[in-house]
Amino acid sequence: MDMGVAKKNKISDIFLSEVKEVISMAMQTTIATLWKKRLNKTQIANMSGHDWKSVNKIVKALEAGQKLPIKKPHPKKLDNKQEQIIQWIEHGLTGLRIFEKLRDEDNVKVGYSTVKYYIAEIKNKKEITIRFHTQPGEEAQVDFGYAGYTLDNNGKRRKTWIFNMRLSYSRLDYYETVYTQKVETFIRCHKNAFEYFGGIPEYIKIDNLKSAILNANFYEPVYQNLYKTFADYCGFKPLPCRVREPQEKGKTESGIKYIKNNFFAGRSFKDKNDLDCRLNKWLEKNCNSRIHGTTRKIPAELFLREEKRELIALPDVPFKLSQVGTRKVYTDCHVYIDYNYYSVPFEYVGNSVDIELTDNLVKIYYQNLLIATHQKIKEKGQFSTVGSHYPKYKRFLSTEYQELYQVKMRTIGNFAEQLFFVIVDKQPRDWNRFVQGIISLQKIYKPDVINLACKRALAFDNYKYSTIKNICKNGLYNLPLDFSWKEDSYAFSKN
Fold it and tell me: Of 55, 81, 205, 423, which has the fewest Cβ atoms less than 10 A away?
């Protein structure tokens, strides 16, 4: 037999003996009940899931009027460390790491397999949860719940979600139906809930929704820009739940379940107006006026008596909601927003970026980092371009670009520089092609030759690249000419 399998079987036998002692009373009660109902041993074994031999043993004892001994479960070696082990599990430590801490820090002499199976027993058989208690005004929990399809005001069937914000102390609820879970919707629901409560709690516990959280890291969460701005403006602190820890927002999960079972179940609605009207009435007359199952108090009364005065005051000026979305950065370093184009640093070409629009500004983010800000363009089909958003070799302004080539022509000679100004004047849109051609002649001819060729071209008022090339090729630059070129015609046009 494989050594690993043998070792595993041995460990299983150890734990099986302990489990048998714990469940023996339950086993006897189950088998006795089924036997009294005149089921045979095979039927009892099949129904209870117990071994036929165990069933037979207990039935014989029952027929003989005997009671099988019930042993108390033996304490386990790690029971005195159970609370510490649970803490380590809550903090995400692996079984191996817990074993190392027990061995090295607490000097517990125990094998890794024992620790491993003890942890498994805790996880599988001890569904340990912590009940969180809060002070008045301290916390609210929020979540979305899917409510199925409902009719909008145009008679169209729409996917519908329920937004719930529940004050953790009084259990006062606010509900609202929406068609999206976008961040704008999420924030708008918050604003409506705060107005309903007449104040703002210190903390808002959220379930790592994309509307609020970009990176669900419990120790250092990354918040969605607009939601964080809204939170700072209103004065509350977002508090994300730990991943896979649903009990941390159990109050609002109960709220979602409650409205599904007590409002939506068995009801149909003509349109959105009808739904909202009936929801508001139900919220006042039923939901917040009932005796709550946990607190045994009426949420509305408890809220008015103890919690409302503890809430943060609403801001004097309501938060102005921006429009947000995502865009892809084109190869020309721009994003397209409302029929206009806004530049983004070239490093982000090809990436998707987040945009935030206000009445006057366009803000562009990449992975929560602000990378560009523009004045919002009022017309359509316009560009807002920041020159520094282009790579250095692409972002010459027209004057900078000309100055660069003027210097190159000057290194050839004074006549070449003068010809440069003529070309720019005669060919303002594509002067660079002519100039680049003349500069490239340096690969074949010396600068003095090219400069004299430029002098002859100036004399005949011919600035074409092909003319300069032919003068150099045919040696025409040495021929005498009656040169009456006025040097100040173009030489000082740069001033």
Answer: 81
What pLDDT digit, counting tens, does each position of 5-22 carry?
Answer: 444 444 344 444 444 444
244 shares its domain with 195: yes
| Residue 260 within a domain | yes
pLDDT in tens, 373-417: 999 898 888 889 888 888 766 655 556 778 888 999 999 999 999
CA–CA separation, 372 vs 347, rounded Å? Answer: 12
Same domain, 153 and 245: yes
Same domain flag for 206 and 291:
yes
Q: Are residues 220 and 284 in the same domain?
A: yes
Question: Do 284 and 172 have their domain in common?
Answer: yes
CA distance 435 to 424: 9
* Crossing angle (nearest 10°) for helices 465-474 and 431-440: 20
Confidence of residue 324 (pLDDT cuts 50, 70, 90): confident
**Angle between helices 41-48 and 52-63 in degrees, nearest 10:** 120
Domain carrying residue 29: 3-63
The answer, as to whether pTM is greater than 0.90, is no
412 vs 131: CA distance, rounded Å: 85
